[in-house]
Amino acid sequence: MSLLSVDAAFALLMEGAAAIEGTESLALHDAHGRILAADLVALRTQPAFAASAMDGYALRAADADATLVPLSVIGESAAGRAFNGSLGPGEAVRIFTGAPVPAGADAILIQENADRLSPDKVLPLEPAVTGRHIRKAGADFSAGDVLLEGSTRLTAGAVALAASGGYPRVTVRRRPRVAILATGDELVLPGESVGPSQIVASNSYGVTAMVAATGAEALDYGIAHDDAEEIGGFLDRARAENVDIFVTIGGASVGDHDLVGQVFASRGVALDFWKVAMRPGKPLMAGRFGPMRLVGLPGNPASSMVAATLFLKPLVAALAGFPRIPIYRDAVLGADMPENDLRADFIRARLGHSHAVTPIVTPFGRQDSSLLSIYAHADVLLLREPFAPAAKAGDPCRYIVLD
Ligand SMILES: Nc1nc2c(c(=O)[nH]1)N[C@H]1C(S)=C(S)[C@@H](COP(=O)(O)OP(=O)(O)OC[C@H]3O[C@@H](n4cnc5c(N)ncnc54)[C@H](O)[C@@H]3O)O[C@H]1N2
Ligand code: MOO
């Protein structure tokens, strides 16, 4: 297969990528970041009663006009303990923030503007204004109002609003299940003893973190040897576990031990593409196995993470039900760049700001796709389009934020 452009490969991958079916009910504490399955309608009115916004005295504004004569204090209304009675002419009720405003009162005089002459007398020092410092019943929302529309992502504020609306639990969309399998005889898990010619598997940790942060239920399947039967076994397990996206890492290239493509082919998977005109990440592959999507990431650490950022992350977001957001932003180059060849370059770079509004993107000097120490310190990926001509520091460029 020849090299496909990044845009063409992306379009193939995203064909038919829409929010998956299925919902689940979650305790509100577990729902942050999840997507509401349906409109959330207020079960109650907030506030349910007219409430004082300040500490002071509830009274009739007409009694605290320019004449400012003392009023009789006939009781107290505190948050959670209302004054049971109604207030008549010449009377005031001591009141605190959040407490119900007693019947008969139409204004709150803040205590800074009152002189408590004795336990049962208060002298207004300023005129009161009708309605001032009173929160009307339903000022926030009323029972039956749509508090949050279906498909809303639950921010911390939205979680608080759901609680206020009377919901201890909410129904959210199911997360896409994404299984991640590292492949390679050379791999051991972090913390295990590393034999000669072995290395520690790192990519699956990065990719797992990335997909989990993008709204997936991430299942780390661990490591498979370079063994077609073993890799095939994991593919079957993913099908049996109703995985939505099965991600392999490594074994995507052309070497004798690069078996992922062969395993997919032996199961009758028709690949949507294999090999993309990008650097790093060229041997990326994607396909479908029944309802399950397959993404084969290249093994080199930066290749794996870059390909996952550009392809896997948007796919997960789409299956999770998040709207597609443009990923490229504008900046200026912090260094001269040579002309580019046929592969789009995604260059690990730092993002800086000068006094100008436009940020500056400065590439790291070393770009080898094995270098995690560079990748982990990169703020962004600088895009160099295929066949981009040489460019000077200060020229416009585009970049993608890494997180
Ligand atoms: N003759 C050619 N050789 C290669 C080509 C090519 O076109 N022709 N492409 C190169 C490119 S580009 C890449 S990228 C690599 C990717 O190959 P694979 O996906 O088959 O990856 P592996 O060979 O399995 O591993 C490459 C490298 O990465 C390390 N690795 C693998 N998995 C992990 C992991 N989970 N965590 C950390 N490191 C991992 C592995 O040990 C290797 O060092 O192929 C080029 N070759
Ligand atoms: O494109 Mo590879 O992904 O050179 O490292």
UniProtKB/TrEMBL annotation:
Enzyme Commission number(s) from the entry: 2.10.1.1
Protein name from the UniProt record: Molybdopterin molybdenumtransferase
Family stated for the protein in its record: Belongs to the MoeA family.
Entry's Gene Ontology molecular function annotations: metal ion binding; molybdopterin molybdotransferase activity
Biological process (GO), any one: Mo-molybdopterin cofactor biosynthetic process
Source domain of life: Bacteria
Gene Ontology cellular-component annotations: cytosol
Organism: Aureimonas glaciei
Record SMART domains: MoCF_biosynth (SM00852)
